[in-house]
Amino acid sequence: MSDLEQKKGGRLNRLMRETVGVFGGIFHVYRAWWADILVLSLIIFVPLGLLDAADTHALESIGPGHDVRLFALMAGALAVTATGILGEVFLAGAIGLSLTHAEEGRPPGIRFLARHLTFGPLILVDILYVLSIVIGFVLLIVPGFAALVYFALAGPIVEIEEQGVKSAFRRSFKLVRGSYWMVFAVLIPIEVIGESVQKGIEVAVESILGHSFIAVGLGEALAEAALSPLFAIAAVLLTRKLLEEKEGTILPGPRLDQLRSGLGSG
Fold first, then answer.
1. Which of 96, 215, 226, 248 could form a disulfide with 156 if both were Cys (CB 3.0 to 4.6 A apart)?
2. Cβ neighbours for 233, distance < 8 A, ≥ 6 positions apart
């Protein structure tokens, strides 16, 4: 085996070890805090899912000749989508704050998170993040994936480092640069597989409850509540990992194997 092949093999083995390590961290966080995370997720995604389903149902019921009404409902759909983005940002920020403010391995309460999350910058960061991905995929597939990976840490950075919007994107790009394929190997499978599983959950719920907008909304909400935390946890753990490896910054918080559920802890 040539030196070049040995180097490639070494890089691949390191990539696999790091990727498996991050997935192990995701498992530890979700296993320890699953009840806390699901409660928070349901609070966020049940009303959003119902709003989205109601707006979709209204759009489908509009016949020809109702352009003004159609425009109003489409605007409403965009507003609901933007609110859904708020849900994703809130969840990612909440997990990031929880890991740095955990006491005896337990996450802080929802009221603490609501008081300390910086909603404005988080919403703006996530909207710009989504737009960069959409534009990237419209132009070519590769720029879309690049935007998804390079800027994935911007949201957690806003909370963890209290950065502004522009600084968060710059920091995310800087941290991911040189570790692109590791971040790619973690986030892309979560997105692709998660989307497929989410559709399956939605179909299962609709088959049980029927096809009313309430059933559709609950199906969407339950799927989001179960799967959205995976991407959020991954982004936070990647941020913590890269900050430590590249800058020597060790963020406060317990080890992942010390995490304990906060529900019922008084």
1. 96
2. 25, 26, 29, 30, 95
